[in-house]
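Hi P.,

Sorry for the delay on this. The queue was packed all week, but I finally got your sequence through. Input first:
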Amino acid sequence: MSAFKHTLNGFAVVLSTLLLCLLCLHLYVRECRETGKPAKLLQSFGVFQSYFRDAHFDALLGAIDAFEEKEGHFSALANTEQVALMKKSLFLPLDGQGRASYRYKPNIHILHASVWNGLGVTTLHVPYDDSLLEHLAKLKVYYQELMFETDAFGFRKTDFAVDSKTPAILFL
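Then the structure:
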């Protein structure tokens, strides 16, 4: 065989190996998406984050910013495997023993949903807007509470009535 044929065969082997690896990565990410578990093996590599990023997730984030006050967001870890994205405009700052702390604003509507972002699950706490439902319909949603409301004190409304005559205990 000539040197050219050896080079061509070597190139074909390398290309076949790369394509097989890419197929395995797609199968791995698809399994993670179906089970709701993050693709931990790929999350630390920016190139994979860009490649597998869900365009519908980016569209949802764009839609949130389109109607939302430009106050930024908190990026927090909801648990060891999920990122939580909470818009700052939902919260009022409090002075908590010299450290910054926050509570929900009173009388607001909040969308709470956990969605696939491309390599993992992101939990959203954002102001409710009907326009977001169209974007959510295009995503893999693991948990969706379309809306919850806060009361006059910034707490999530419950079925328990609150009045000033009945003592109540708040457990934190």
